Amino acid sequence: MKTIIEPFKIKSVEPIRFTSEEERRSILAEAHFNPFLVKADDVLIDLLTDSGTSAMSAKQWAGIMEGDESYAGAKSFFRFERTVKELTGMSFVIPTHQGRAAEKILFSIIGGKGKFIPNNTHFDTTRANVEFSGAEAVDFMTEEGRHPEVEADFKGNMDIAALESFIRDKGAANIPACFITVTNNSGGGQPVSMANIRDTKAMLSRYGIPLFLDACRFAENAYFIKLREPGYADRSPKEIAQEMFSYADGVTMSAKKDAIVNMGGFLALNDESIAAQARTLLIITEGFPTYGGLAGRDLEAIAQGLEEVLDEHYLKYRIRSVAYLGDKLTAAGVPILRPPGGHAVYIDAKRFLPHVPPNEYPGQSVVCDLYVRGGIRSVEIGSVMFGKYATDGSLISPPLELVRLAIPRRVYTQSHIDYVVEVVIDSFKHRERLRGYAITFEAPALRHFTAHFRRLS
């Protein structure tokens, strides 16, 4: 059959509160034109993030009831540890309350002033934790990834030649680790090929630099490899994921993505010395090494989710449902980053609003209009999230100005997505009316979470 159905049945539902456009105008103004500051109850379709917003399965909820809440040595930890070790092949597994906690611990150990952390593209918390340590986060997105309109199978790849040139320039001694983010979130949720991971590892090995995977969406990346990379069509998603991890020396993961849970994460390593230092910091900041800031029930849910996410029926539905949204928008002429990624569709705000320059934050303008027009909450990934200031105070913009429509796992049905399509198309038809925004308040780090804006006339 041509129709791909959800590989699950709905057992529990949550009501949506409907609001009028007039109400939403007032709500957004009170939130300083920042959807992060809008109450969730005032949102119809919440596509702000796929992190921690997914629906857990009956088996995950059953695991929560079986969670062992012992302070030390809980059996839930050992199930969690076995699952992560089997998947990643790492020797040391350290639970944390979410991915950014793993990043904070790791970069507190390996970061510092004068150090550089390369990545295909850092996402927001990774970059913030690198820079908080005093190190510099540097991106090496492949050239085709810089062009939203270009169709390519693996636009999330690392630019290996540029990375090697950078290593020679800065010196391998100043680069304690290199990261590859799978899938590449800031680059449009685009996958990284197995060949690119393998070749990056081979190059880094010549300089003695360890490779880490930011594995938030490892299963989606594995499925893209199965679909698109020669030699993997007959391999299971789990086997592909295990090969991906075999090239890594360490892993950070927010389990709130591809472990399909509401809270949790981990740091996994092969380096015993770093693991020992990480456990010390874990005890100070997160908790005992066998719970790491999580309840035993969370560890059970993560272990179960890591198994469920590799089910091929689920991954087929997941990737196709995101492509459904992207293809509908493309057919209507809405400019998006092509092809659609694994967890989200990214509107190309530069082409959506060519009359709004980057220093007036075109992505934020689209985000605000989608909320007012249809109650859809999304997020800007452009000059608000990643912009920096030059010494003269002018804005240094990132390569892309995007609006991310992140799809929570197992939450919305096709009719919800059809509604999103209608709202986005309606916004695009009236795009000439949209104007830019100015920032009136910003925090020194991760400003997009709490920034205040005013609309420009």
Describe this protein with a few key phrases.
single chain; 457 residues; alpha/beta; Aspartate Aminotransferase, domain 1; Aspartate Aminotransferase, domain 2; 2 domains; 5-stranded mixed beta sheet; 16 helices
In short:
With 457 residues, the protein is α/β, with parallel strands linked by helices. Helices cover 40% and strands 13% of the residues. Helix 4 packs across helix 10 (272-285).
Task: Please describe what this structure looks like.
- By secondary structure, the protein is an alpha/beta fold.
- The protein has two domains: 21-50 and 311-455, Aspartate Aminotransferase, domain 1 (Alpha-Beta Complex); 58-308, Aspartate Aminotransferase, domain 2 (3-Layer(aba) Sandwich).
- The protein is 40% helix and 13% strand.
- The chain contains 16 helices and 16 strands.
- It has helices at 21-30, 58-66, 75-88, 99-110, 124-132, 160-170, 194-207, 218-228, 237-246, 272-285, 296-308, 312-331, 349-352, 362-374, 383-386, 414-429; strands at residues 45-46, 92-96, 116-119, 136-139, 178-181, 211-214, 250-254, 265-269, 344-348, 376-377, 379-381, 388-389, 395-396, 402-406, 437-441, 452-455.
- Strands 2-8-7-6-5 form a five-stranded mixed sheet, with helices on both faces. Strands 9-14-11 form a three-stranded antiparallel sheet. Strands 1-10 form a two-stranded parallel ribbon.
- A hairpin with a 5-residue loop joins strand 12 (388-389) and strand 13.
- Helix 1 packs across helix 14 (362-374), helix 3 runs parallel beside helix 11 (296-308) and helix 8 (218-228) crosses helix 12.
- The mean pLDDT is 97.
